[in-house]
Write a structure and sequence with these properties.
α4 (110-124) packs antiparallel against α5 (129-146). The protein has a 5-stranded mixed beta sheet with strand order 1-5-3-4-2. The protein has a two-stranded antiparallel ribbon with strand order 6-7. It has 3 domains: 17-123, Alpha-Beta Complex (Conserved hypothetical protein from pyrococcus furiosus pfu- 392566-001, ParB domain); 170-301, no CATH class; 309-495, no CATH class. The longest helix has 24 residues, at 472-495. It is globular. It has 504 residues and is of the alpha/beta class. It has helices spanning 3-16, 45-55, 79-92, 110-124, 129-146, 154-163, 170-186, 188-192, 197-216, 222-235, 243-258, 262-270, 336-348, 352-368, 393-397, 401-418, 425-431, 437-443, 450-453, 462-465, 472-495; strands at residues 21-26, 30-31, 61-64, 72-74, 99-104, 314-315, 318-319, 375-378, 384-387. It has 21 helices and 9 strands.
C-alpha cells in the first residue's frame, strides 16, 4: 500500500476514534447542535454569561464532527455556553472570545450525540418535560430507522437509553410518548410553559376514565372519543393550566352525549370504579408499558439489568470492611482550651455531639460502600449530615446486580437518616453543590426521578438484599445511626427547638 494511502487511512481512523484530544478552534468553526433537546432559552443564560465574562470559559467544550462535515458541533451539552461566546464575540469583537479551547472526540453516531445532550441538559436542570419527551421520541425514531421502520417497544427503548447512559423507567417513557404524540398538538402552550409529569399523569388518567365511560354508554368509537378529548384539551390550553376546567368539560360532554345526569358522570370521573384494568390507547403499542393503576412508577421497571463487570469490593457476604477510625469528638485530648471550648459549644448547642456522631457513622458507612463523596457534615442543624448527590453511574455500573442493590439501598437509608429530601430549599441551595443532580431534583420537587437514578428494592426483599448482607461492623454502625436519628428527633420535641434553624 502506498505511503500516502496509509496516511489518509490513519487520518480517517483518527477522526473516528473516540479518544479525546485538546484543540483550540475558532468560534466560527463550532456550530450549535441542531437537534438540541432544549427548545427555549436557558433560564441560566444571564448567570452563565456573567460567569464567562468574569472568569472565562472554565470548562472546555466537548466537540465532534459528523462524517464529511468541516464544522464542529458541541457533543454533550454546551449549547448555552457556545451561544454566549458567539454573542459576546459579536457584541465586543474581543479576541479573547475568538478562539475556544475544546476537547475533540471522534464521531460515533447521531443517537449518541442526541442522548449526550439530553443527559447533560437533564443533569444541569430547567429542561421541561416536553423537551425531554421530544428528545426521547426523536431517539426512538432513530432506532426505528435502524430497524427498517419498526418502532421500538418501550422496554427496548429503555434498554437502549440505559446503554447510552440515560437511565429512565418505562413508566416515564410511557408518559413521554403520550405527551409528545397526543398532548403536544392539543396543549402546546401548557407543555412549553413547563407542565410536568404529575399533571400529564392526571390528564392521562382522565383520558382513560373518559374513554371507559364513552364505551360503557355506547356513545361512539374509540377514535371519536380521542378526537373529542383532544379538542377539549385544545380549548383549555394556556400557561396557567388547570385540570378542573378540563374535567368539568369532559363530564359535560359525556353527560350530554349519553343523556345522563351531569352529577352521575362527574361522580364516575372523580372516583372511577369502572374497571381496574387500564384501557390502553392506540399510541401505546407496548403491552408491557409498566403502568399501575394510579400512574405511579412500577418498581419492577426501575431495576437495571445486571451487567458483566468487575467487582467493587462488595461481595456475596457484603462490602469489604475498610478500617476507618473516626474521632466523633474531633478535639485534641491534650488541650484544655479546646476541651473547654467544646463544653461551651455544647451548652449553646445540645445537638452538637449527636450531630457529630451521626455524621461520623454515616461517613463510615458511605466510605465502606465507595460513596464517601456523597455525604457531607451539617453540624449546625438537621441530623448532622446531608446526602449531597446520587451515586456515580460508573460506580454502579462496575458492581454486580446484588451489590448494586445493596449500594442503592444504603444510599436510600442515608437519604432517609439525613432527611435531606425534607430540608428547606435554602439548605439545599446553600449546602449541595451546584453540579449535584440531587440538588436539582430536590429543588424542582421531582423526587420520582430518583427512582431512575438509584435502584430501590421492594420492602419484602429488604432483609435479604441489605440487612443480611451487612458485615458486623456495618450492621452496628447502621443500628447506631438509626438510634442517633431517633435521639435527635426526641430532643427536638423535648427542647421544642426546630430541626432546621435559621442559622443554617
Amino acid at each position: 500500500m502506498a505511503k500516502g494511502k496509509k496516511s489518509n487511512k490513519k487520518l480517517e481512523l483518527a477522526n473516528q476514534a473516540p479518544n479525546p484530544r485538546l484543540v483550540c478552534l475558532e468560534i466560527d468553526q463550532i456550530s450549535l447542535y441542531d437537534r438540541n433537546p432544549r427548545t427555549t432559552r436557558n433560564p441560566e443564560y444571564e448567570r452563565i454569561k456573567r460567569s464567562i465574562v468574569d472568569h472565562g470559559l472554565e470548562q472546555p467544550l466537548i466537540v465532534t464532527r459528523r462524517p464529511g462535515d468541516k464544522a464542529y458541533m458541541v457533543k454533550a451539552g454546551g449549547n448555552t455556553r457556545l451561544q454566549i461566546l458567539k454573542d459576546l464575540y459579536a457584541e465586543s469583537k474581543d479576541p479573547c472570545y475568538a478562539m475556544v479551547t475544546c476537547i475533540e472526540v471522534g464521531w460515533e453516531d447521531e443517537s449518541d450525540v442526541l442522548v449526550g445532550h439530553l443527559r447533560e441538559n437533564s443533569l444541569r436542570g430547567n429542561l421541561t418535560f416536553i423537551d425531554k419527551a421530544a428528545a426521547v421520541c426523536a431517539y426512538a425514531d432513530m432506532m426505528a430507522e435502524a430497524q427498517n421502520g419498526a418502532m421500538p417497544k418501550i422496554r427496548d427503548l429503555q434498554s437502549a437509553l440505559l446503554k447510552q447512559g440515560y437511565p429512565i423507567s418505562t413508566t416515564l417513557l410511557s408518559y413521554m410518548r403520550y405527551a409528545a404524540e397526543f398532548l403536544m398538538p392539543a396543549i402546546p402552550v401548557a407543555l412549553s410553559d413547563g407542565l410536568g409529569w404529575h399533571a400529564i399523569r392526571r390528564i392521562r388518567q382522565l383520558h382513560r376514565t373518559g374513554s371507559q365511560l364513552w364505551s360503557r354508554y355506547s356513545i361512539g368509537s374509540d377514535s371519536e372519543f380521542d378526537d373529542t378529548f383532544s379538542e377539549l384539551c385544545r380549548r383549555h390550553d394556556g400557561p396557567d393550566w388547570q385540570i378542573e376546567p378540563l374535567r368539568h368539560a369532559l363530564a359535560t360532554e359525556i353527560a350530554e352525549a349519553a343523556d345522563i345526569s351531569l352529577q352521575t358522570i362527574r361522580m364516575a370521573i372523580d372516583a372511577p370504579d369502572i374497571d381496574s384494568t387500564e384501557v390502553t390507547a392506540s399510541y401505546e403499542s407496548d403491552p408491557a408499558a409498566g403502568q399501575d393503576g394510579d400512574g405511579a412508577p412500577d418498581m419492577n421497571d426501575l431495576t437495571e439489568p445486571a451487567r458483566d463487570s468487575t467487582s467493587t469490593g462488595i461481595t456475596e457476604a457484603g462490602p469489604e470492611s475498610l478500617t476507618v477510625e473516626i474521632d466523633l469528638d474531633d478535639e485534641p485530648n491534650d488541650s484544655k482550651g479546646a476541651l473547654s471550648k467544646h463544653q461551651d459549644r455544647k451548652q449553646h448547642d445540645p445537638f452538637l455531639d449527636l450531630r457529630r456522631r451521626a455524621f461520623g457513622l454515616a461517613d463510615s458507612l458511605a466510605r465502606r460502600f465507595g460513596m464517601a463523596a456523597l455525604v457531607a457534615p451539617l453540624p449546625d442543624c438537621g441530623h448532622g449530615f446531608l446526602t449531597i448527590d446520587v451515586p456515580d453511574r460508573s460506580l454502579l455500573d462496575a458492581a454486580d446486580a446484588r451489590s448494586r442493590a445493596a449500594m442503592g439501598t444504603l444510599w436510600w437509608q442515608l437519604l432517609a437518616f439525613s432527611e435531606t429530601a425534607s430540608a428547606p430549599a435554602s439548605i439545599i441551595e446553600e449546602r449541595l453543590p451546584n453540579a449535584s443532580a440531587l440538588r436539582r431534583i430536590l429543588l424542582d420537587q421531582e423526587l420520582e426521578l430518583l427512582f431512575d437514578r438509584v435502584q430501590i428494592i421492594e420492602a419484602a426483599y429488604f432483609a435479604e438484599a441489605f440487612w443480611a448482607r451487612l458485615p458486623k461492623q456495618d450492621w452496628q454502625d447502621w443500628l447506631y445511626l438509626a438510634h442517633t436519628h431517633r435521639e435527635i428527633r426526641s430532643k427536638v420535641i423535648e427542647l421544642e427547638q426546630p430541626l432546621w434553624n435559621a442559622a443554617s
